[in-house]
Write a structure and sequence with these properties.
Length: 387
């Protein structure tokens, strides 16, 4: 018999350029906040899972799980690092979820952390391309802006998606970022500024790209009974899904449809017993502005080809109630790769508690979507507010 899993506590640092912080200090700050938020005693934690992508490349620090556990004063726990590119910490949440759901542990601490600033540009370039298959596309010089440039060009060709519609994603998410104190960018941007920004990988422009960011976020997963015992301000994990998608461009039948997202969403909706029409608020992996459009279609919020027009369409004219990326998304809040998954769950948990600075009214169902590599590792989590 499976155990009902709750997000019993969440914690985070601010996302941005954070000089003077180490990977460990960021992770510990977020973890302590999540443990305090959960009200669950530290000695109830059985596992510590640290999601991190490029700590070794950027800082020289590979071992993280035991170090973070020790700095938290946790002993006799299982502590490991989990890597799934940009989906590292959301993949760690899936592992922690399954440990609690199976009854193997009453509570698990998951931390996501990354430091992407302060190192030479060459190190960041090397770090990001580490998520590309080096035996194939890596040798051709493929970068992620180039990959998403191909996606964008094809989407525009197939569906008539316009440059203005894609740019509107950045404008929208920067507007949300103004009122999110955790966001790296807290200043509005105009459509003209986006569309006249320097080219990066045609048709991707500078302001179509999310920033490389420092930050950490943490989640305490617990059984329903333990969360209730300590009065945790919890939300229910209705679905936790991790799947693999195409690893190489040549694996795609249609580069504008990401099979990992489609399959993860299908399984998550089935597990939760809801559909895309039920979701009130979602945090999607908008690493590039076109990614939010593609994600929103693959998750079933909009029909294929309608994701672009939907960005500029008034909410009253859409066939969905979902509010997408009210945190500001990766484009505004920032993308500390290994921390992003837990950061998204933090945002949705706060929405479902009714405590978000950009609160969606009466939010009951929330969804997070986090992708690693060329959508090679994809997670979808569906959370439900407790009545």
């Amino acid at each position: 018999m499976s155990v009902e899993v709750h997000i019993a506590g969440v914690g985070t640092t601010k996302f941005g350029v954070l000089p003077g912080h180490t990977l460990q200090s960021l992770a510990v700050e977020a973890a302590r906040a999540a443990l305090a938020d959960s009200k669950i005693p530290a000695d109830k934690i059985g596992w510590v899972l640290v999601g991190n992508f490029v700590g070794g490349i950027m800082t020289g620090q590979e071992l993280l799980g035991p170090i973070v556990a020790a700095d938290l004063g946790l002993s006799n726990v299982a502590a490991i690092k989990v890597e799934a590119a940009c989906a590292s910490s959301s993949a760690a949440v899936r592992i922690g979820h399954d440990l609690v759901r199976a009854g193997a542990e009453e509570a698990v601490l998951v931390v996501g952390v990354e430091r992407l600033t302060g190192a030479p540009r060459e190190a960041l370039t090397s770090a990001m391309t580490a998520a590309i298959d080096q035996g194939t596309e890596g040798g051709s010089g493929l970068t992620f802006p180039a990959f998403w440039g191909l996606v964008m060009a094809r989407h525009m060709h197939l569906y008539g998606t316009t440059r203005e519609q894609v740019a509107a994603v950045t404008v929208k998410n920067r507007q949300f970022g103004i009122t999110n104190p955790l966001a790296q960018y807290q200043k509005a941007i105009t459509l003209e500024q986006v569309m006249t920004s320097p080219p990066i990988a045609d048709p991707i422009l500078r302001f179509d790209c999310c920033p490389g960011t420092d930050g950490a976020a943490a989640v305490v997963l617990a059984s329903k009974s333990l969360a209730q015992k300590y009065g945790s301000p919890s939300v229910r994990v209705a679905a936790s899904v991790l799947v693999n998608g195409p690893v190489r461009i040549t694996d795609y039948k249609d580069i504008t449809t990401h099979d990992g997202t489609v399959n993860a969403a299908r399984r998550a909706y089935e597990a939760a017993g809801v559909g895309p029409q039920d979701i009130d608020v979602a945090e999607l992996h908008d690493c590039f502005s076109i990614a939010e459009i593609v994600d929103s279609e693959d998750l079933g919020f909009f029909a294929k080809g309608d994701g672009g027009p939907a960005v500029t369409r008034p909410a009253s004219e859409r066939n969905t109630k979902v509010v997408i990326n009210p945190s500001g998304g990766l484009l505004s809040k920032g993308h500390p790769t290994g921390a992003t998954g837990c950061g998204q769950i933090y945002e949705i948990a706060m929405q479902l508690r009714g405590r978000h600075p950009n609160q969606v009214a009466q939010a009951r169902w929330g969804l997070t979507h986090n992708g690693g590599g060329t959508a090679a590792a994809v997670t979808v989590h569906i959370l439900e507010a407790l009545k």
